[in-house]
Write a structure and sequence with these properties.
The chain has about 180 residues and is of the alpha+beta class. It has six helices and five strands.
Length: about 180
């Protein structure tokens, strides 16, 4: 449950959200830093009453609930960019002209679509607690098609990759 309080200051709407779960996560993170000697306990005491709060200053007439939903979508967008950079390693292009850049963007766009298709599939199959999309990509990247004597054939699949493919109900076609 997210609590909120709103008031107006100089014609702007100030909304203060309080999230108990976020407070626990921030507190746990700070305590771990204290134990790791990266922070002092006095830092925890000085921040304990602001943990779990998010303040939004807006000039829109939107209700607090809608503003919070938009804020949560922003987090989803940031997560998508994080996946783009850190999982797909697509934060550097090295492209020399517009045509190459357009191809690079298209390929990475398709990769993002496939990443989130895998993510949703893991949710639907209730496998997300065991595998991340990056795990699936890593395991399935071990499956190769080889051209031997003019014919394409599937390489021997590692057992784990085969088990994951079966559990996800993937069929790997051989032309």
């Amino acid at each position: 449950m997210i609590w909120f309080h709103e008031h107006s200051v100089d014609g702007r709407n100030v909304i203060l959200y309080f999230d108990e779960k976020l407070k626990m996560e921030e507190g746990r993170d700070l305590i771990q830093r204290v134990h790791g000697r990266r922070k002092k306990m006095s830092d925890y005491y000085s921040r304990q009453f602001s943990m779990g709060t998010i303040t939004v200053l807006t000039n829109s007439a939107l209700k607090a609930r809608k503003v919070f939903e938009l804020l949560k979508h922003r987090v989803d967008i940031e997560q998508t960019f994080d996946t783009f950079k850190n999982t797909l390693h697509a934060d550097r292009t090295y492209m020399r002209d517009d045509t190459h850049m357009q191809g690079w963007l298209f390929a990475n766009f398709v990769a993002m679509l496939l990443y989130y298709k895998i993510y949703n599939l893991l949710i639907g199959k209730e496998m997300l607690s065991r595998y991340s999309p990056a795990d699936i990509i890593m395991h399935l990247s071990r499956i190769y098609k080889l051209k031997i004597g003019g014919r394409w054939t599937l390489s021997e699949m590692p057992k784990t990759s085969n088990d994951i493919a079966e559990e996800l109900e993937f069929t790997i076609p051989i032309p």
